[in-house]
Structure prediction request, 290 residues.
Amino acid sequence: MFLNTVLVVLTDLAARVLGNTAVRQHFHLLLSAVVMFGPVLSFWVSQHSIFAKRSHFLYRMFLRSGWGWTCIFVGSFVFLLSFSIRRSLSLSMRHLSRLGVAGGLWLGFCKLLDLLENATGSCYEPLLNGPEVTNGQPLLVLREGESKSECLRAGMLWRGYEVSEDVFLLCLCCLLLAEETAVFGPYLSLGGISDAPLRILFLFCVLLLGLWIFLLLCLLAYFPQFPTQLLGGALGCLSWRGLYQGWYRLGPSWCSPGRPGLGLLNTKSTGSTETEDPKQSPDPSINTKP
Prediction:
């Protein structure tokens, strides 16, 4: 009983924060500020910290499979929330398709970034011994005709035009989590059924959002790389804007899966059936009039 009360209090508080209009409208600005000014933390953090090692458990366990963790928790939450409201498998799959679209976009951009780095980069072999070493730094000898994979496999260095895929992924996941979980606040305000499994999934999503922000700060503070990280953050924000602020706002004629909450919260009850009234609110995903 005590644990259930704690769960209700924590999830209600998190739902009010994430569902707040100001938070929803300015969360991307907060994330942009973190990406822009996060590297300043490198002046205060210690390079002897456990987070200064790429082999740290959090990096190996979560960062390398960040999209998988996001899909598991967000997908479970979106499916359970939508299915518990409408009992419609097709509607639940339509809302889940947003994750598929975002995942396809992420994979597509990663392929393009990899092609860009291969096209603009070169392989260098460091000279570690002899008079070529200057000021403690080895000179680099250009190796022609090497691809990135062959260069790294041979233990050499690849220098090219890079965009941080880690920062790109973390920014996209943070914005996606904020969008998908923001509907829980309006859902609770309407008196929706909020049993323990749904609240636990929502709490896991909130904790995952906090973990992604923490890992983003760690990357910016302990491994600052300007401007590659800034470009990665910009690409993540542009991807979110193109999807959630662009395509998902369009009607079914554009094959849009709709924004979070569309068909779930912005409806009028008419007996056992419900019809949408798009004139009730300029933002259909936050319209909570029953």
